[in-house]
Amino acid sequence: LAKTTQPISMDSYEGQEVNITCSHNNIATNDYITWYQQFPSQGPRFIIQGYKTKVTNEVASLFIPADRKSSTLSLPRVSLSDTAVYYCLVGDGTGGFKTIFGAGTRLFVKA
Amino acid sequence: NAGVTQTPKFRVLKTGQSMTLLCAQDMNHEYMYWYRQDPGMGLRLIHYSVGEGTTAKGEVPDGYNVSRLKKQNFLLGLESAAPSQTSVYFCATIDPDRAGTEAFFGQGTRLTVV
Questions:
Q1: A53, A57, A64, B22 from B37: Cα distances, Å
Q2: What digits encode the pLDDT tens for the residues A63-92?
Q3: Nearest of A25, A110, A108, A15 to residue A71 by alpha carbon
Q4: Least CB-CB distance to A32: which of B33, B92, B101?
Q5: For chain B, which ranges sit under pLDDT 70?
Q6: What residues of B are in contact with residue A36 (Cβ under 8 Å)?
Q7: Angle B24-B1-B93 (CA atoms, 0-180°, nearest 5)?
């Protein structure tokens, strides 16, 4: 299973763009990269998923370079409500798959 | 469509007591997982199941047992609770027929063992 490395914490201000980078040097060919968001006292919530290049949805963008050894979650114009912990995971969802969460990145958005 | 529902939401146990946490899902997903999350930490996998009647150990299985008698339910048991098992427990499901790792989580069970 690919191990991921993320910054422990980040601070930002409202209205700024936030980029959180995750390293996954041992990513396998079949692995996808998935990001989750977790608010206090809640379960993690799926944000975005990608395999290569760029993926964008209504919440975020995910940038994946050609070698796929890292990925960057981009949150445009953050607000106070984006203060949360963000987890980067890699895996392929096939038989025997185990979702491994690291400590995540604590994002604190200030007014 | 409730998604993933955990019962109970809160519980206080005395050391040595037993209890069962229930995870119920209505999404017809094959894969189900139990995690624990300690304060300020990420989630750690306790046990998981890839289908009805199957279970497997995760990272931290000691002190816990699980059962998946029905596809929609995944039970987590504590036979003799210890203070070290004080944590927030999350259940999650994944549909393996969809590529990738989009998991759906319950709202959590906050367990305190005194």
A1: 32, 28, 29, 17
A2: 999 999 999 999 999 999 999 999 998 877
A3: A25
A4: B101
A5: 1, 99-101
A6: 103
A7: 40
- Reading the block at residue B58, the tokens are 């995760």
* Structure tokens belonging to residue A2: 């690919």
Show the low-confidence residues of chain A (pLDDT under 50): 95-97
Rounded Cα–Cα distance for residues A7 and B20 (Å): 36
pLDDT of residue B100: 65
Q: Quick one: tokens of B99?
A: 């590529």
Q: Distance between terminal CA atoms of chain A?
A: 39
* A32 in Cβ contact with B100 (< 8 Å): yes
**B101: DSSP letter:** -
State which amino acid sits at residue B29: H
So what's the pLDDT on residue B43? 87
Radius of gyration of chain A (CA): 13
SS in 3 state form for chain A? CCCCECCCEEEEECCCCEEEEEECCCCCCCCEEEEEEECCCCCCEEEEEECCEEEECCCCEEEECCCCCEEEEEECCCCHHHCEEEEEEEECCCCCCCCCCCCCEEEEEEC
Tell if the CB–CB gap between A34 and B31 is shorter than 8 Å. no
Query: What residues of A are in contact with residue B96 (Cβ under 8 Å)?
Result: 93-95, 97
